[in-house]
Specification:
Length: 288
């Protein structure tokens, strides 16, 4: 894959704006963090439903109650997974999320079991996959923020674990693109022909090295924690990238959306993170 400077320039400029928005959302406070991933949650859902509609024509016929009801179920699940710092007076966001979950569930049940002439478990399965793939991932991201009691990051910053995870993904993606463009020759998978083994391995090694060395020498984090985060993110992130590429290939599209020039849509930008969040959370859950 030859190195294309213009493509890299477009991706880099878009990435600068994207990074600024992400950092504001990640670092300002817990409310900006929640607002950021709420926007990402709904953006991913709209693109996912569009892709599934292209893969399975029947899915385009789902009712608005199904379409938006399942989004509400997912958002409610995501809000339910926030911690006690998210509250309005005595009412926590988690309680609000649980209420929204059931409102969405009622809308879905009314649509599919009471109003639908021909209920389709196949279409329900498409939406259920979206709940796991998108809503569960961002719900666990809420868990990673401020819910790291007992870890080495407990007494530092609530946002540190999500930021380390996202930094690992970004560095891995960028370095895999650069290394693959310069020396990549062996295709990684038929699902994504432009990705190479050289780029994938090079990107992972560079991401692990940069995150680990920066964390050790700049923030004095233990090597073990940093190696686990960066290595897990690199491996799981690659799988997430391939999964989304498979969805796009089945749908017959190049990008899931056009919100970010050079990067595509929400799913294109967050595909690696969607899977990495789940795997990193599981790893930390069993470790701590």
């Amino acid at each position: 894959m030859a190195f294309n400077f213009q493509t890299f320039k477009t991706r880099a400029l878009t990435a600068v704006v994207f990074v600024i928005v992400m950092l504001i959302g990640l670092l300002w406070n817990q409310w900006s963090f929640l607002a950021l991933f709420t926007i990402v949650h709904f953006g991913c859902w709209m693109e996912y439903q569009k892709l599934v509609g292209l893969i399975d024509e029947e899915y385009k016929s789902i009712s608005p109650l199904h379409k938006y009801g399942v989004m509400m179920i997912g958002w409610g699940l995501m809000l339910w997974m926030t911690d006690a710092s998210y509250r309005f007076g005595t009412i926590t966001v988690a309680v609000i999320g649980w209420s929204l979950f059931w409102i969405g569930m009622i809308a879905f049940v009314v649509s599919e079991l009471l109003l639908s002439k021909k209920p389709s478990p196949k279409l329900w399965a498409h939406s259920a996959l979206g709940l796991i793939y998108i809503s569960m991932s961002w719900g666990l991201m809420m868990r990673l923020w401020g819910n790291i009691n007992g870890t080495i990051l407990d007494s530092i910053y609530s946002w540190m674990l999500p930021v380390l995870l996202i930094a690992s993904i970004w560095i891995n993606d960028t370095m895999a693109y650069v290394v693959g463009s310069l020396i990549g020759k062996t295709p990684l998978s038929p699902i994504s022909p432009k990705k190479t083994w050289e780029g994938t391995i090079g990107g992972a090694l560079l991401a692990i090295a940069v995150v680990t060395l920066t964390g050790v020498y700049a923030f004095h984090f233990p090597i073990k924690t940093l190696l686990i985060i960066s290595a897990t993110a690199a491996i799981a992130g690659t799988l997430g990238d391939l999964f989304e590429s498979k969805l796009k290939r089945m749908a017959g599209v190049k990008d899931s959306g056009q919100i970010m020039p050079g990067h595509g849509g929400f799913l294109d930008r967050f595909d690696s993170l969607l899977v990495a969040v789940i795997v990193v959370w599981v790893v930390f859950y069993f470790m701590y």
